[in-house]
């Protein structure tokens, strides 16, 4: 297959996700060193994650609008440059309050990426390859997750200083800025400056029935994802894996498992879409299998099954936890009003990322109340089941590979 321009776009956007995730998740393995230096509690240390997710979530809708209004290329370059400087700034802080402030600002810079990266993939990718394009792009996220968890601790151990993690992890960001500058251009405007047309597009993005079903579906799937990403090391320790290193290594493998999940499900959704099977059925099937695996994991934790069985269920869940997103984003791109795709994706991620505030807290509350993580896992499985109902209710557009 000859190399096309959209292939370059895919890989530049994927590299950007690697750069984003190493800065975001690189702090997790070195939290112990940060707690020791600043003499803070576990609860206080958790505010670091709250800070970056709060600002990241709040930035979703503005960033998509700014990209639609002023050009996605500019926003992508500015945002990646900013988180380069904020990563270096993380290494220079002299107090915990400064660290929280820098991480909060980092979240704003990170938040400008999604709402402009996803529409860039949509703009340059042929419709028949949209699932594969979204998959390749998000493979950067999965690999960045793995790379951050695995290499952050190694850098800190080698240098005996957690700050060097963020010096090293800053450089992929500046490389991303250069790659976007060199290889990414803004597509031609789709939405003409017609007031009625603009109002109709925004009305559909903010009030459209099918889009709101998709936005809420995103919340259900991200709820289950953030439960796994936040609490899986603790779940392993509850099951008898006593060292933080071992539980973190097992948890970090989730990113590697996500790589084939993204590519296989994304590619299959393209192939079947060309044969008349709509992408929503791939989303529904992936979510159904994932929900069943979460139910099984909840029961395994409840009866204190072997850590081997829980690991198999967890890693298989990871395949679908990542794999569900390429057909989801491809379908969202088909439903989005032309000309404000960035705003639509930004609103979708804003609604979805509210789960990053709810799932960790609610799961922790259930653990405190019941003494086990099984209840939280059952809740996540039921939330995913609700998501299946939502996607089945979506009416897909004509020409998307399904007859309604």
Describe the structure.
The protein is mainly α. It has 2 domains: 1-188, Growth Hormone, Chain: A, CATH 1.20.1250.20; 194-396, Up-down Bundle (Growth Hormone, Chain: A), CATH 1.20.1250.20. Helix content is 82%, strand content 0%. The chain has 17 helices and no strands. The protein has helices spanning 5-25, 31-38, 42-70, 72-92, 96-124, 130-159, 163-168, 171-183, 195-207, 209-238, 244-273, 279-302, 307-323, 325-335, 341-353, 355-370, 374-393. The longest helix has 30 residues, at 130-159. The radius of gyration is 20 Å and the shape is globular. It starts with a helix and ends in an 11-residue tail after the last helix. Mean pLDDT is 87; it is low at 400-404.
> How would a textbook summarize the main sheet?
none
Summing up helix and strand content along with how strands pair, one would put the structural category as: mainly alpha
What is the gyration radius calculated from CA atoms? 20 Å
Q: What overall form do the CA principal axes indicate?
A: globular
Distance N to C terminus: 34 Å
Q: Predict the CATH topology of the largest domain.
A: Growth Hormone, Chain: A
Domain count: the total is: 2
- Order of helical and strand elements: HHHHHHHHHHHHHHHHH
CATH architecture assignment name of the largest domain? Up-down Bundle
In DSSP terms (H or I, runs of 4 or more residues), the helix count works out at 17
Would you report the number of β strands?
A: 0
- What portion of residues belong to β-strands? under 5%
Helix content: over 70%
Reading off the top of the CATH hierarchy, the class of the largest domain is best stated as Mainly Alpha
Averaged pLDDT, please? 87
Low-confidence runs of at least 5 consecutive residues: 400-404
Q: So, the CATH homologous superfamily of the largest domain?
A: MFS general substrate transporter like domains
